[in-house]
Amino acid sequence: MNIVFDIGNVLIRWHPERAVAHCFPDPEAARAYLNEVGFFDWNHVQDGGRPFALGLAALEAAHPGRSAPLADYPARFGLTIDEPIAGSWALLDALRLRGHRLFAITNFAVETWPEALRLHPRLAGVFEDVVVSGHERMLKPAPEIYELLLSRNGLRAPDCLFIDDSLPNVEGARAVGLAAHHFTGPAALEADLRARGLL
Fold first, then answer.
1. Rounded to an integer, what distance in angstroms lies between the CA atom of residue 136 and that of residue 156?
2. Predicted local confidence at residue 103, as pLDDT
3. 1-51 residue pLDDT tens
4. Bridge partners of residue 180, in order along the sequence
5. pTM, whole model, 2 decimals?
6. Superfamily of domain covering 2-13+82-195
7. Is 72 helix (H, G, I), strand (E, B) or coil?
8. Per-domain residue ranges for the chain?
């Protein structure tokens, strides 16, 4: 079986409020700011390949005078992803030892993906291929991003299990024909992998 991992909040926790902690030391205040300026929708567009300078200009246009806390987001991004999810990495290693092929599809911006590789260097070597949304200018859950992984690696959708913490991304994978697991934590993932006979 080919195992296809998401990365953010599956292998690495993402705490976006930490990127604006220099302006909002209280995490609740930081999260309130991010919600106020529509950070998550904005970030999704960034993950689709929009250059950061254009993204920052769009944020300032939509929320005049409110973009400054995110002005150096790429430089501060590492603060948001410094925590690996140890249980998930242990399962990845167990799957590798069982002979399963490992791949990844991740929504990441062009400017932030290098920081993930710097902080978590195993990402650069543990997978046969990583489809990074910002590089390809396509995003989960669009079918094209799953189809790209399949075509680029000569894989059949029924021979793949996709793992993601986002239910829409899971449903997108299933629509293309991949088996999929909605990740809520390592324990539930391990139980599902064992039920499928993969561990």
1. 20
2. 98
3. 999 999 999 999 999 999 999 999 999 999 999 999 999 999 999 999 999
4. 162
5. 0.94
6. HAD superfamily/HAD-like (3.40.50.1000)
7. coil
8. 2-13+82-195, 16-80
